[in-house]
Fold:
Amino acid sequence: MDPSKRQKYVLVTGGAGYIGSHTVVELLSAGYAIVVMDNMYLNDINIEALRRVERLSGRPVQFFKGDVTCVSDLQRVFSLYNFWAVIHFAAIKAVGQSTRIPLDYYYNNVTGSLLLLRVMKEFNVKNIVFSSSATVYGEPDKCPVDETARVGPVTNPYGRTKLFVEEMLRDLCASDPDWNACLLRYFNPVGAHPSGLIGEHPQGIPNNLMPYVIRVLQGRSPYVHIYGSDYDTVDGTGVRDYIHVCDLATGHVAALKKLDTKPGCVAYNLGTGVGLSVMEIVKTMEKATQKKIPYKIEDRRPGDIATCTADASLANRELGWYPTRGVEEMCEDMWRWTRKNPMGYDGEILVSDEDDDSS
Ligand code: WQD
Structure:
């Protein structure tokens, strides 16, 4: 028998991306056999990211270039490897962009997930960890928000695609008790692997706060636009639950283990429960970088809410998962990645004297 048919693999769709690559590092170190399927829309960037994942973990990553919207790609990878579970990251995820090109978002995120699930069923693979988002809560009635909170109304097409796929998975698990799904609702992922080898590759003008602060620190933008200072929060600026991407990654390993217990369909918040304001993030980044960060207070950004923080006690209890990295580490690790990789995965890794402390 073909050896790859004996080994039981986990398929990681979108595994060459920011959260996917950090999760693959943790999966490999936990001893899982992994196949990454990625459409490599960033081409060499994604290849370099996977090369560094292998360098970090000291283990090979099986790679298959494919797109979840292509049934033949899906059927091909499922016929090549013996999968027992899928972690599904592959999606496009810019809130603002999703309001401009909603059809692309529904096609990639919803149709792509539907086609993946149909091929999983065809090959009798009925375990999935789904990359969802706290955006499904819309404007939560209360914070911290727990998984019993109502979902919706969601304020953008991106968030609706996540909600629609969650509903598909609920219906699927209800129709067939052999299906198991962990829906992981991320709050605000930031940071990078402490080695400085992998991180978030900068793409264009970022919508999210942390990558924009990095641009200002690199002198690529003159100042941080702080959207709103009149919210009912500690200092008037927006409060969010920032979670280190490595903590997010260990949450996926814990969710994969949970699938073994046949939980059916369960949603888990992956957050720290700690709310930090925009101003607090800026000040923490100034401390981590020892640089002044210019900013301007501007009007609120449409669709933003004052506060969104997680009650992650269900994940703590049922997954045995706890985030371990605080905001200082998030900022230090983000800055180390940036210093070593000023153009992300484009170009060589820079090694500076300061890196000696990054062992
Ligand atoms: C954080 C805070 C802004 C940029 C989004 C998605 C969510 C998830 C994470 C995918 C807010 C303020 C921001 C800036 C600012 N993505 N801000 N100046 O909006 O909480 O969540 O990203 O899953 O689904 O909705 O993140 O980083 O855009 O904003 O003042 O240049 O920073 O107002 O208070 P958000 P964000």
Remarks:
- The pocket of WQD is lined by residues 93, 95, 133, 135, 186, 188, 207-209, 212, 225-227, 238, 240, 278, 301, 304 (CB under 6 Å).
- The two ends are 43 Å apart (CA to CA).
